[in-house]
Amino acid sequence: MEKLTKPPPKNDHDTITSFWGIYKWPFKKYNRYAQLEGLEQTADETRTMAKALRYMTKATELGLSIDGGLGWLSGPDTNSKVVERGEKVAVFGSSRFAPEPQPKSTKVGKAASPFPFPSPRLRYPLGSSARDGSSRISFLTRMLREAGYNEEVVENSLGMLLGEDEQSEEQARTDTPTVGGFSWQDSDLLGLDTLSDDNFSASASTTIRGQNAATGAPGYHSDDDMNDNEDERPFPAAAKNARSKTDNHPLKPNDLTSAQKEMLLELEWAQRAFMQSYAIAVIDNPSTFLNIQTLTIARLPNRHLPILRRNDFWDSLPGLRSLTLAVIPDWRDVVKLPTSWVQDNRMQPSSAVSCVFQLLHEQISQRKNITTLHFEWLCGGEYAPGLFSRNQHVLVAPVVSKAMEMVNRAEKPGVLLLPYVEVLSLKNCWFSPHIFTEFCQSLKTSSLQSLTLDSVSLSAPVTPGAHPHPATHPNHHNNALAQAIMFAQQLPGIPGPPPAAPQVPVTNNDPPVQADWLDRPRTGSWADSIEQLTPGIRLADLRYSRDMSEAPAPHAQSSLRKLAFKSCGYIRLPLDFDQTALDEPINQHPIPSTAHIAKRINDLEGIMMKPNDTMLGTVSNHIDDLEASTLENAWGMTIGWGPERAELKHEAQLDGISRAGLGRFDGSIEVAPTFNDNR
Description:
This protein is α/β, with parallel strands linked by helices. 27% of the residues lie in helices and 13% in strands. The chain is built from 18 helices and 16 strands.
């Protein structure tokens, strides 16, 4: 979000006029961004939106795309190839947006910055143009005039404001106390980090500061105080060298400035107002949307889903046939405290599973008219760019009411039922094998005809009766120290007994059994799941055709005719249960990252968001050779990414995925419809 990188200027203090002069004082009420406040007020005009939508009588498709910035923030963790491609989110069919033009190279002979942000020397705190070098003076002049000062005293007052800020700049940065995790200097959009050495003393911060955070009174410094502290102020060059490398990034996802938090807060207010007006406008015009057949929600934060959990909203779309739902899980919650401070609270992204499940269970599954459904998570996975996002942060498929129920086998959770959906597609999510089988079996007995899985992964099988907990150690073994139990048990000073002779294993003269791809696959594997769900040929049918087994039971009656797989495979979880079935052979371990990638990871790790969620999975780029043979020979699957994904593979390698696409498979299983299906 480019605007979040450089939020609009906003004064964090009011100007009080008194007999003694002007004073800077906190606002009595929370000070809003004018543009976002106007946007929220416009969105609140429900009647206007309802009137506008009233004329859409011939429309057959509705689209919605909202991103409030409360999900995963990539910040400086960008992929150059993805930026060059400039791909936009498609709302109405294929995207018609052309890639944004790239900025021209610098003409002064300096190397262009690898980050898409302006040089610190080119930033102006409050000016709208880089040509206006006195933008800060203009801002303060306008502020004084609005406060009621005439032209005679504006110049003197302006000099006082500039002089005070120059004197208190460094002291405010180093000495201002924090209250409740809020620092007054955090609201500075461009502080010392964005100033060069040669204009250090001539520039000032964007906001008007100098207030005592403990008392709420304006800061006051006498000449004696300034002289006493003059020697204690750090030299600008020394302060600059002491700064962290990450200070060059204006957007730090793990450490947002106060201005950025306030912008996210007000943006969420405006979007919530829009969503409420949008839903009410649809509800108030049921006759207008009789022709709507497709609803595409290309992006929507999960916090807005409860607005759509209304019967009257979906009743107003009686002709709706196809629904696309792409949800952004919330990673943070930005709230305004009674003190008008803005607080950033971290959230578990997996909590979004409950919101989506409730919408699907309470509304979508009850609608006979909705026969086509697509769902995907916009968070992490194979298609997410960035060193800290690619192949990571994959969420649970929202077919259970809580994310943890996906791996909880101590109790049997209820699984989502979609009795009227005929075409279902899922993207960028994961299942546990037993929930996947149960979910698909329920679909087979309903109206489902086609199931498409795009970047869907299976976890290792969970033992019945188990309830995995967060892993306490990556190599957790109960008897890890048992080998030392009988060590040095003799009395002190007395030699210990001789060690026991090693036992020679019994010789096995039987030849090793060669596993065959026709054998029954591992329980919980993709081959095992496809064997149970496929509408076409099964391994049991192939064994019978080769006189290797008895005739299998016939297929159960089902309307399912097509299974499609796109880059499906396995996923690992930070949970304490047996996942050895997904272990890679020693000779197939990932190739170590290059020095460039390792350096970028080291430089950015401190400012990136940290997931504290055990239900976020990591894609595994490995599949067992025997299972790969089964998928290839029995159902014609393709293992690994082919030439059609060469661009995606290259992008993934730039994000440190050295074996991108390995262990993933593509293909489809389709049978012709029977007479009973066409009647």
